[in-house]
C-alpha cells in the first residue's frame, strides 16, 4: 500500500473525527423505528424515520454531495464521476425498537472510554455516517472518481427492505456495492431468512392474559413478562434460572418477569431468550398444578418447549448445516396473547441445505401435533457473490493491509441490503471478537455500543475501498 496515501487518509480521519462523532449523535437522536402504518406522503415509514433521513441527507449536503431521495423510501447522495456507472454504499437510518434494559437514554448518544452508546451506533447509523465521510474524502482532495460514487441511505432495513425494492423499480443496479452492516473482513454470502408464526388453538378459559417478548422478531428478547389470572399462592418456587425470574402478586393475578441476555436473531451464541425462561417455569407449574391452565394453553406450552429447545431448530426438526453457509439458527423472539389465542413467532436464518417449502411443511406438521397452526410470514433465499470476484479480493486486500490480519470471505445469518443487488457484499465494521465493557451491549440489545477505534479503522478502509474499486473494470 502507498504509505503516502495511507498517511493522507489517516490525517483526514483524524481531522474530521470529532465531526463524525457529532453527526452520529445527531442521527442517533431520532427514534427512527420504521412503521408503515404511520406512512405519510414522502414518509412511507413514519415521521421519525423521515426525520432521521433528512438528518443524514443534511450531513451529506453539508459535506458536498448532490442529494435527493426516492419518495422517502431511500436517500441518495452522489459524487458524480467520469462515468454514470456507480460504486455505491448502502446503510440504513432505521433502527429496531430500543426495548428494555438500557442504563442510558437509547436516543441520546453517550461517549464513554472509547465507546459510543446509543441505539444505532453500530447498526447502522454510525456506519451510515462513516460511508458519507468516506465519499467526502474525494471532495476534500478534489478527486473526480472514474465511477460515480453513490451513498444510499435506507429507511426500512430492519422491517422488510421494501425501501430498496422500491428504489430498484426505477434505478439501475450499481456496478458494485458494499454495505457497512456486518463484520470485517468481507461477507460474501448470507443465509436465507424464514419467518413465521405458531398460533394456538382457541383458548376458552385461559390463565395467561398477557405475554411479551422482544419488540421485533429479529431480536432475542432480554426481558419477557407474563401475567396470569391465578393467585401467587398457587405457584411453586422456580427451580431453573430462579435468579432470573421475578414473581409478584398484582391486581387479579400474578406477574412473572424474566431477565435473559438479548442480542440479534442471527447470532444467538452467548444469549439467553427470556421467553424460554418463562416457558420453562410454566412447564414446572403445569407439572404440579396442570388444572390452572386451559387444555389449549397446556398444549401450546408443550409446543413452545419444542420451539425453545435450542437455537439450532432441533426441537422443531429443521436443524441443518452446509459447508458454504454454516448452521441454521432459530430465534423465537415475539410472543403475544391476541383474540383468545397465543402466538409465537420464529426468525430462522438457513443455509442452502434446506428449502423454504420443506421448513414450512415441517413447522406446520409440528404445530398440528399440539392443536396449533403455523403461518409463513416471509422468506428469502440464501445468496452469495463469488469470493474470486476482483472487487471482493480488493476489499480483502485492503483489510489485510490496513490491519495486518489474515482475511477470508465468510457467510453469515444476518440479512443485509446486499442480497437485493446484483453484485454486493457486506464490509464491516462490527467485530464480535472485541470484549465489551460490562456496561456495553450488542446491536439489537440494550446498551448498544460501538468501539471508536474500530470505527476509525473502518472509515480508513472505506476511503481506500472507494479509491481502489475505481481502479477496477467493474
Describe it.
This protein has 474 residues and is of the alpha+beta class. Helices cover 30% and strands 26% of the residues. It is built from 9 helices and 27 strands. The protein has helices at 3-28, 47-63, 125-141, 162-168, 274-288, 295-307, 356-368, 390-403, 452-469, and strands spanning 66-69, 74-79, 83-92, 110-112, 115-117, 147-154, 176-179, 182-183, 187-190, 192-199, 208-212, 219-220, 223-228, 245-250, 253-259, 263-264, 321-322, 326-327, 329-331, 335-338, 341-350, 373-380, 383-384, 410-412, 424-426, 429-430, 449-451. Strands 1-2-6-3-7-25 form a 6-stranded mixed β-sheet. Strands 10, 19, 20, 21 and 22 form a 5-stranded antiparallel β-sheet that branches. It has a 4-stranded antiparallel β-sheet with strand order 11-13-15-14. Helix 3 (125-141) packs across helix 9 and helix 5 (274-288) packs across helix 6. The two termini are 21 Å apart.
Distance between termini?
A: 21 Å
Strand content: 25-35%
Number of helices: 9
> How many beta strands in the DSSP annotation?
27
- Mean pLDDT level: 95
Biggest sheet statistics:
6 strands, mixed
Please state the structural category: alpha+beta
| Helicity level | 25-40%
Radius of gyration, in Å, reads 23 Å
Detail the poorly predicted runs.
Answer: none
Global morphology: elongated
Strand arrangement within the widest β-sheet reads 1-2-6-3-7-25
Amino acid at each position: 500500500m502507498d504509505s503516502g496515501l495511507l498517511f493522507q487518509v489517516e490525517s483526514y480521519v483524524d481531522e474530521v473525527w470529532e465531526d463524525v462523532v457529532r453527526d452520529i449523535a445527531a442521527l442517533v437522536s431520532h427514534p427512527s423505528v420504521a412503521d408503515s402504518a404511520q406512512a405519510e406522503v414522502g414518509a412511507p415509514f413514519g415521521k421519525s424515520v423521515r426525520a432521521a433521513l433528512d438528518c443524514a441527507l443534511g450531513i451529506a449536503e453539508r459535506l458536498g454531495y448532490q442529494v435527493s431521495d426516492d419518495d422517502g423510501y431511500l436517500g441518495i447522495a452522489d459524487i458524480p464521476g467520469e462515468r454514470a456507472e456507480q460504486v455505491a454504499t448502502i446503510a440504513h437510518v432505521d433502527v429496531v425498537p430500543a426495548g428494555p434494559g438500557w442504563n442510558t437514554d437509547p436516543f441520546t448518544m453517550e461517549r464513554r472510554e472509547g465507546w459510543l452508546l446509543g441505539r444505532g451506533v453500530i447498526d447502522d447509523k454510525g456506519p451510515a455516517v462513516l460511508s458519507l465521510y468516506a465519499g467526502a474524502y474525494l471532495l476534500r482532495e478534489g478527486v473526480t472518481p472514474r465511477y460515480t460514487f453513490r451513498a444510499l441511505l435506507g429507511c426500512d432495513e430492519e422491517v422488510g427492505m421494501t425501501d430498496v425494492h422500491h428504489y430498484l423499480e426505477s434505478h439501475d443496479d450499481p456496478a458494485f456495492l458494499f454495505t457497512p452492516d456486518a463484520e470485517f473482513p468481507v461477507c460474501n454470502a448470507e443465509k436465507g431468512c424464514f419467518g413465521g408464526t405458531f398460533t394456538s388453538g382457541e383458548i376458552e378459559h385461559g390463565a395467561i392474559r398477557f405475554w411479551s417478548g422482544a419488540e421485533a422478531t429479529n431480536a432475542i428478547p432480554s426481558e419477557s413478562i407474563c401475567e396470569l389470572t391465578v393467585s401467587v399462592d398457587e405457584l411453586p418456587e422456580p427451580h431453573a434460572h430462579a435468579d432470573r425470574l421475578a414473581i409478584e402478586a398484582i391486581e387479579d393475578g400474578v406477574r412473572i418477569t424474566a431477565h435473559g441476555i438479548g442480542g440479534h436473531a442471527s447470532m444467538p451464541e452467548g444469549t439467553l431468550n427470556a421467553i424460554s425462561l418463562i416457558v420453562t417455569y410454566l412447564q414446572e407449574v403445569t407439572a404440579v398444578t396442570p388444572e390452572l391452565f386451559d387444555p389449549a394453553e397446556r398444549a401450546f406450552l408443550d409446543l413452545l418447549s419444542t420451539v425453545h429447545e435450542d437455537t439450532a431448530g432441533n426441537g422443531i426438526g429443521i436443524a441443518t448445516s452446509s459447508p458454504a453457509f454454516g448452521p441454521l439458527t432459530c430465534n423465537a423472539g415475539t410472543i403475544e396473547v391476541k383474540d383468545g389465542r397465543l402466538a409465537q413467532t420464529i426468525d430462522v436464518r438457513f443455509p442452502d441445505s434446506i428449502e423454504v417449502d420443506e421448513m414450512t411443511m415441517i413447522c406446520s406438521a409440528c404445530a398440528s401435533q399440539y392443536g396449533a397452526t403455523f403461518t409463513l410470514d416471509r422468506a428469502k433465499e440464501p445468496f452469495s457473490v463469488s469470493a474470486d470476484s476482483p472487487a471482493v479480493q480488493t476489499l480483502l486486500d485492503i483489510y489485510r493491509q490496513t490491519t495486518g490480519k489474515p482475511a477470508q470471505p465468510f457467510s453469515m445469518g444476518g440479512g443485509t441490503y446486499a442480497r437485493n443487488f446484483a453484485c454486493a457484499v457486506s464490509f464491516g465494521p462490527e467485530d464480535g471478537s472485541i470484549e465489551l465493557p460490562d456496561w456495553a451491549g450488542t446491536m439489537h440489545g440494550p446498551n448498544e455500543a460501538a468501539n471508536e477505534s474500530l470505527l476509525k479503522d473502518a472509515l480508513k478502509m472505506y476511503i481506500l475501498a472507494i479509491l481502489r474499486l475505481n481502479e477496477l473494470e467493474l
